[in-house]
Amino acid sequence: MSDEQTIPADRRFIVDDIAAALGVSADELAIDTNLLDAGLDSVRIMSLVEKWRAAGHEQIDFATLASDPVLGSWLDALS
32-79: what fold? Predict the structure, then answer.
């Protein structure tokens, strides 16, 4: 990620979780990365939803993430 795309520390876990699900480095993901195009499938999205809900982000759901699969949108949804 470039300097203008710095992720706040309190949301860095989101990028780290997504990168782990994709099997890539978090540095390979940009704010405008379409996560479906990057290889994230529905099963992995559901796994992330479950993980994030368990961590206290009860507002997040599969439909919200799948309807706008861009990293920046997910960061906003989880803030």
Answer: 1.10.1200
Closest CA to 75 of 66, 67, 65: 65
Phi then psi for residue 65, to 5 deg, are -70, -45
Q: Is the pLDDT of residue 4 over 80?
A: no
Give tens-digit pLDDT for 15-44.
Answer: 999 999 999 999 999 999 999 999 999 999
What mean pLDDT, rounded, does the chain reach? 91
| Residue carrying the six token digits 């997504």 | 18
The whole-angstrom separation of Cα 25 and Cα 68 is 22
CB 15 within 8 A of CB 7: yes
- CA 14 to CA 26: how far, in whole Å? 10
d(CA 77, CA 68) in angstroms, rounded, equals: 10
Specify the amino acid at residue 22.
Answer: L
